[in-house]
Structures are given as structure tokens and as C-alpha cells.
Automatic annotation (TrEMBL):
Protein name: Probable RNA-binding protein 46
Domain of life: Eukaryota
Pfam family, one: DND1_DSRM
Gene Ontology MF, one: RNA binding
Amino acid sequence: CMCLFIEAALLALMEKTGYSMVQENGQRKFGGPPPGWEGPPPPRGCEVFVGKIPRDMYEDELVPVFERAGRIYEFRLMMEFSGENRGYAFVMYTTKDAAQKAIHMLDNFEIRPGKCIGVCVSLDNCRLFIGSIPKEKKKEEILDEMKKVTDGVVDVIVYPSATDKTKNRGFAFVEYESHKAAAMARRKLIPGTFQLWGHTIQVDWAEPEKDVDEETMQRVKVLYVRNLMISTTEETIRLEFSRFKPGAVERVKKLTDYAFVHFYSRDDAVTALHVMNGKTIDGSSIEVTLAKPANKESNRRNHQKGQGSPTSDGLLFQSKENGHSATPTRPLNLPTRFNSNHNSSSQEVERCIFPFYPGTNLSAISMYSLKPSYFCSAVTLLEYYCNKNGWGPPEYYLFSTASQDGKLLLIYKVFVTGAGSTFMPDKLCTVLEDAKELAAQNALWSLGKVSSKNLALVSFSPCYLNVWRFSVSHFCSCIRQIGKKLQKDRERESKRTDQKI
């Protein structure tokens, strides 16, 4: 009966609006184009992403809400095989102004009592990240191979290795002519089912370039410098970029093989851009561009989230090196205590170990029934929030590289399917568990579930900190020390306390 009711409601909506509706590839499309539309689809920037939609809510309720912001070109609701929606949708308006109005009007809008939706700009991503590529392959070889196995390839972006400029970094970015072409290529190249040059490749969406308005770009006084040698120092960069005008550089921040060069004036930054782009520093040809600023709040809430490094003028300067962004200013020590932004005032749960007595009554519970204050692991907290928002479990992809002294360094890339977001931290780890914890921590920070002020380092006793690294004997010794402190409590217990624990 409910299915018939929903079907009747959708038919009534189509009859009232004149829009068509078709379901394909796990999504239901309303419109695209709307009745009487002539010409090409709306330009980039006209689409918004809608999250946290109740699973039993459909177009007959959603479309009238989103029509308040302007004329809808296309409404795409993601669907499950069961007939429920997947909790998110994409709404394309006929103008950018309507899309921006929808964000301001409907973000955090209470669509049902106690149920608020999230609305943010949707970026039409046409770029794929391809990992596990043989490092000896050149750009031309990778481009030719990708054109053979996928359609619509426009370009390939390959970065040289930080330690050996004759080799690539083991990954590339492939640009396609449209989002649809990129999506079809991703489906064909999914991990574990496709090989290039005898290697099983890793495929994911690349973090899209963020659109920045011209007025904001006209104020930028920071240059992003790529393809530096690891050995190149900040002082060398300062001297090279000051040659055309001594004293023009305010400061330099170098991270591995890329850097941000801050100038006192906009004119000097633009001049340095034209003078230095393509120049050689310490034997390496560098690439120089204007750093892209983004408002902190809009950057945090964008569903294709990146990271950034705050500057003195309150802007975030993004870098797309390595498929992720520049160093965020937040504590990265492990382990860390995480608290929700919305529950930052809640009392923190004390971290302790208590004896378990035989016969104690136990009740089975779900971790999702607990409050975030009960979690100290970023991996657990990220899983908790993904489940809470109906995004599905986070997917972790492991990558490695070698340090200058030959140590194996590890880093995880995290993909949150329901949020349509990919995250990668800007630090590498020598221990697998640390790499995963750091990746989850970075994803939580980028999703806005954890703010830098709530990332407080916990003062653990040694027996609680990185337990897996302690020998069994050391761990047992710590437990015995705790047992001594609990001796007085045990003496007040019944005779059962005399049994061995």
C-alpha cells in the first residue's frame, strides 16, 4: 500500500510540473532538462549536494522544498535496490544564484521534526586518481595507455618523484571531458579488477579544483611552488624569489618538495610568478602558481573537502600536490581524544581499567548507542559518524613510499562514500596503526566533526598509551600496579574477590 501511495504521489508531481522521471544506475532523475529548456545544461557551480535526507522521503516532498530557491534543472536522488533512498541527492539549478540561495536557505533546514538536512555546493568532478603506476612510466606512456582503456581522456597529470626527478611518484591524475566519462572510467577501473602494465591499479575520485571568484584571487599575495628538491631550503627559495626585488618576500614555508612563498604586495607576487615559473632551483625545474584561497567555513562544509594551511589574513591556501592539501594547523600527536563540535562542552569520560569479576551481569549494546565522548580512537569515531549520517563505512586505501634513509613510510587515503569525499593527511607514518589513526583524524577534521580546539592530547598512563607496542610482560606489570591501587576496594568486596582474575 505504501509503495502505491508513493507511486501515486510521484505521478502527481510529474503531472503538476511537466518534468519527466527515470531511474537508472542507482539514481532517480527528475528533469534534466526541464520542460521547454533549450540549449546546453547549466554551467559548473549550479549544482548542490544534499545530505542527511530521511530514507523514506522522496521527490514529492523534496522537490517543492528545493523549488523555493529557484528553478530546478535536474534533481537526482540516489536509490537503494530496496526502494529506499540512500540519504543524499544532487540538485542542479538553472542558475548559480539559485544554487547559492539554496545553500543559504536550506543548509541545516529541518525537513521533518528533528531531522535536518545539509546542503553545500557540489563540484562536477572530471578527474580520477590512479595509484600503483610503475614509477618508470612517463606522462606520454600513461596518457596513451589511459586512452586505450577508457574513453574521453583529455589529459594526464604526473608529478616527478621527490627524490628522483626521472621517475614519477607512483600515481597520476587523469582528466576526462565530462563527469559522466570520468564516472564510467572509474567503474571500469575499480580496484582489484583491472591491471596496467601487469600492476593492479588503485582508482578513486581526485579532489576537484575549487572554484575561487576573481575578486578573491585579485587579493592573493602567496605563490605555490611545486617540484622542488627535498634538499632545497627555505632560505634558498627566499633568495631566488627575491632576486628581481630584494626584500619583496615576507616569508617562505616549505613542506617536502613544495612551498608557499608569501609576498608583501600583490604586484610583487604576480611579477615573481611570471619571472620564476619554469626556472631551475638546485637542478629542478619548478612550477609556480597563485595559491588558491578559500573561506574557512565554506571549505569545511564543502562535500568535496580538502585541507588548508591558515595564513595571517585568515585564508586557507590549498595545494593539490600528492592529491591532497597543505599542512593543516592542528595537533597531530597520537593517540588523541576527539570530541564532537556539537558536544564540546560535554564531560569527558575518564579512561580507566577496572577488574572484571566472575558472575558480573553484562548487557549487549551497540557502539552506535554510545556518545562520542566514549571514543578516543579516530578510526572508531569516524566509523561512528559515517554510520550516524548514513554514509556507509569509510574505505581505507594504503600507500607507501621510502624516506631518504630508506625507511618504509605509510599513508592511508580515506574515502567516505555517502559524503562523496576523499581525504588524505599530509604526514607519513612508520607504523601501520598510526597511519590509519592519522588518516581518520584528518578525515574527521575535514568533515567538521572535530575542530582544532577540541583536538586535545590525552594524558595517558603508560599502560594505556599504544598498548600494542608493549611486551606482554610489561603490560601485565602495569595491570598489577593498577591492581595494588584497587586493593582497598577489593577488601570491601565479597569473598568472590579472592578468586583469580
